[in-house]
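Q: Okay, next protein. This is Bisanhydrobacterioruberin hydratase from Haladaptatus pallidirubidus. I've checked the sequence twice, so it should be correct. Can you predict the 3D structure?
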Amino acid sequence: MDRREAEANLSMIVRENRFTIAVVFPLVGALLFVAGHEAWLPAWLAQNPLLIVFGTLVMRSPLVAGLLPEIDRRAGIALVALAVYTYAIEFLGVTTGLPYGEFHYQLELGPMLFGTVPMGLPVFFFPLVLNSYLLCLLLLGSRASSRFARFVSSLAIVIVIDLVLDPAAVTLGFWAYDGGGAYYGVPVSNYLGWVVSGIVAVGLVELGFDWRALRARLDGCEFMLDDMVSFVILWGAMNAYFGNSVPVAIAVLLFAGLRRIDRFDFAVGRSVRKAPR
């Protein structure tokens, strides 16, 4: 089996299981997170790191299948550089408090590199940046031709996404900020740090990929942003359960953005089940 056949097979699997991947998996994940948090599950199952990694990989599969045809040598180098940067900035953050503020992991999210940061960190981090970039290409329309607009919009969406993710993750006990924070236990320094790390991450994506090719791929690949659908469902539901009203409102805005570009219609499941255009 060559690369094209492998890519086609993965796309077929994702396409035939869109509703399960984009809706069922995050809903089941949210239920398991709640059950683990409330101690309704046995200790070995509650917030099991390997189960978290597995579920995350499944929800990432639409993004992977969508991007694979666009990964050439230049994009591959950019992704490797982004992975190295991801580990480096996270290790720096855990050990020195820079640039996010003093924090530590309370749950080992899979095997830990040097006992400090999760080895699967790119699986968690890459989609925040890549989905933001893809979403901005659709939302910007004709203005996507401006590198400045792409860069600023992608960076803004990265930070917006973390405004939804971090409060729920802190409440679940994934990680904690040593001094707490005014925003649901998250300090302002975390978001200032995300500006710094996001500039580098978005810059690498911009340098590594041809935005026109990605835009064309989005037009032909109806499931490419399903990972964002999963994110909205999972972390929107978790924040709703914990009563985090501002993150819920932001998740609703992300929902509206996905609806605007015809990528998300939860009421009838149309955006995660329709045929390719």
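A: Here is a summary of the prediction. Residues 273-277 have pLDDT under 50 and may be disordered. The chain has one domain: 3-272.
Q: Noted. On to the next one.
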